[in-house]
Design brief:
The protein is α/β, with parallel strands linked by helices. The protein has 2 domains: about 240 residues, 3-Layer(aba) Sandwich (Alkaline Phosphatase, subunit A); about 140 residues, no CATH class. Helix 6 packs across helix 7 and helix 11 packs parallel to helix 13. The structure holds zinc ion.
Length: about 400
């Protein structure tokens, strides 16, 4: 038996006027997902406990079977693990975004135009983080470059006393109300302000502006955390597994849980990612000893944050056609029995452009136990109407693995 989690980050949504009062899942053409819904179990599940913020970190931990109330120590340490940065117990890590702020002279007057600096490429951002590191690295603080706009700051020996805002929560808002708080507010705010000077005439930014792309005008520090202690996925579940994802956060959960985390070239964490490469990686992992693969797509979430209605629908359709379809064909070719869990980690509704903590719809299909619900389609409303409710996201893994 092979087990697959197909995770469309932020895929669930609210009914939207731009879609005629429907959700992206309602209108997306996704015949392969729907066919599994008709032959599987459908329901809703709460992935984010009330005590925690609805981040992809918390929600993906939960879907991977780890109770976030027990295992969550912050987002950035998971990303650090994926980036191969070793942490001491006394280190605090932070996400360092490259963002586009508006051009007012006073930092606090600026507006958060783009938390992703135009989804800046990894090659470009590596140059920019190099300049940031040259200017800012000390014995206490160091910067490491990651993927696209997502980078890392490590602080050796600070105390955990921070109040920091995720930049994707303040899209289109003035930053004044959202500047760093806590004991080290001045130091972190100071780095963010000084970064504007360093980046102002940076050749990468000049080139991006010439090409009509958003420049990286500032760093934005948030997502503090300490080294996690995540139990081995294999020891917990008795199954060897892999994680295939573009984003360090999700890969980091895999690394910390001792799963295999293959690198796939050309993945972006957006709608335009290397679908073929990811599918190939999934099939390779199954052929090379993994019985469980966690396949993660970030595209729907990014479109949700950007308020990109069309893009979000397309992201879902591509997951269906460019990922699920070839994987189903591969399972057939391998002649293996299989179980597939399809779900988002959390909703990223287009209307609010950030994550919410609502329960999310899931489909659980098992080739050895097909159901017959010809009227099922995979939508928020239909999943809710089944009345099947799973209280905690971390229970789903046992259901997928047939232990419950
Ligand atoms: Zn998100």
């Amino acid at each position: 038996m092979k087990y697959l989690v197909l995770l469309g980050d932020g895929m669930a949504d609210y009914k939207n006027d731009a879609l005629g009062g429907k959700t992206p899942l309602d209108v997306a053409n996704k015949p392969y997902i729907d066919s599994l819904a008709k032959k599987g179990i459908m329901g809703t599940v709460k992935t984010v406990p009330d005590s925690l913020k609805p981040g992809s970190d918390v929600a993906n931990l939960s879907v991977m079977g780890y109770n976030p109330e027990k295992y969550y120590t912050g987002r950035s340490p998971l990303e650090a693990a994926s980036m191969g940065v070793k942490l001491l117990p006394t280190d605090i890590t932070f996400r360092c975004n490259l963002v586009t702020l508006s051009s007012e002279a006073v930092y606090e007057d600026k507006t958060m135009l783009d938390y992703s600096a135009g989804e800046i490429t990894t090659a470009e951002s590596a140059e920019i983080i190099k300049s940031i590191a040259t200017a800012f690295n000390t014995n206490e603080i160091e910067f490491h470059s990651g993927i696209s706009y997502r980078h890392l700051m490590v602080w050796h020996g600070a105390e955990m006393d921070f109040d920091l805002t995720p930049p994707h929560d303040i899209s289109g808002k003035k930053v004044a109300e959202h500047m760093p708080g806590g004991k080290y507010a001045d130091i972190i705010g100071g780095l963010m302000k000084k970064s504007v000077e360093i980046l102002k005439d940076h050749p990468i930014n000049k080139s991006r502006i010439e090409r009509g792309l958003n420049p990286a005008t500032s760093i934005w520090i948030w997502g503090e955390g300490t080294a996690p202690a995540i139990d081995s996925f294999y020891e917990k579940n008795g199954v060897r597994g892999s994680v295939v994802s573009a984003v360090d956060l999700v890969k980091g959960i895999g690394v910390c849980g001792g799963l295999n985390v293959p690198e796939v070239e050309g993945v972006t964490g957006t709608l335009n990612t290397n679908y073929e490469g990811k599918v190939e990686a999934v099939i390779n992992e199954f052929k090379n000893g993994s019985d469980f693969v966690y396949l993660h797509f970030e595209g729907p979430d990014e479109c949700g944050h950007q308020g990109d209605v069309k893009g979000k629908v397309t992201a879902i359709e591509r997951i269906d056609k460019l990922a699920l379809k070839p994987i189903l064909e591969a399972f057939k070719k391998m002649g293996e029995d299989y179980a597939i869990l399809i779900m988002p980690d959390h909703p990223t509704p287009l209307s609010v452009r950030t994550h919410t903590r609502d329960a999310v719809p899931f489909v659980l299909y098992r080739s050895t136990d097909e159901k017959n619900n010809p009227d099922y389609v995979y939508t928020e409303e239909r999943a809710e109407a089944t009345g099947v409710k799973v209280a905690h996201g971390y229970e789903l893994i046992s259901m997928l693995l047939g232990k419950k």
